[in-house]
Structure formats: C-alpha cells, structure tokens
From TrEMBL:
Native source species: Taxus chinensis (Chinese yew)
Gene3D superfamilies in UniProt: Ribonuclease H-like superfamily/Ribonuclease H
GO terms, molecular function: nucleic acid binding
Protein name: RNase H type-1 domain-containing protein
C-alpha cells in the first residue's frame, strides 16, 4: 500500500516532462508532498539540471 505523487517538469523551451511515483509508505499529506519534492530534486540533479523553480498547491511545502 502506498500513495502516488505526480509532477510535471517544464523546460525553458516549453517542453513537458511528466513523471509519477508510487511512494512506499502511507502517511500524512504533508509528508507525502515533501517526499515527492525530494524525489524531484534528486531526479533533476541526476539529469544535470542546475536551476529549479517549484510550484505547488501545498502552502506548507513551497
């Protein structure tokens, strides 16, 4: 059992890169949102992206 998270990366050229994850734990929404943000940050680091602007519908995170 776990929750899912989805993100869409937008390049400066307007290209879209949608990703979704199945998280391996079931926890409070704020924990899930923060875990999703950490996953994205690791992913873009691995992609060699140096700048990242985050937008979220969760005020606690951003």
């Amino acid at each position: 059992v776990g929750l899912g998270a989805g993100v869409v990366l937008y390049s400066p050229l307007g290209e879209l890169y949608p990703f979704s994850y199945k998280l391996k734990f079931d926890n409070a929404n704020n924990t899930v949102e923060s875990e999703a943000l950490l996953l994205v940050m690791d992913m873009v680091k691995d992609m060699g992206i140096k700048k990242l602007r985050c937008q979220s519908d969760v005020e606690v995170i951003v």
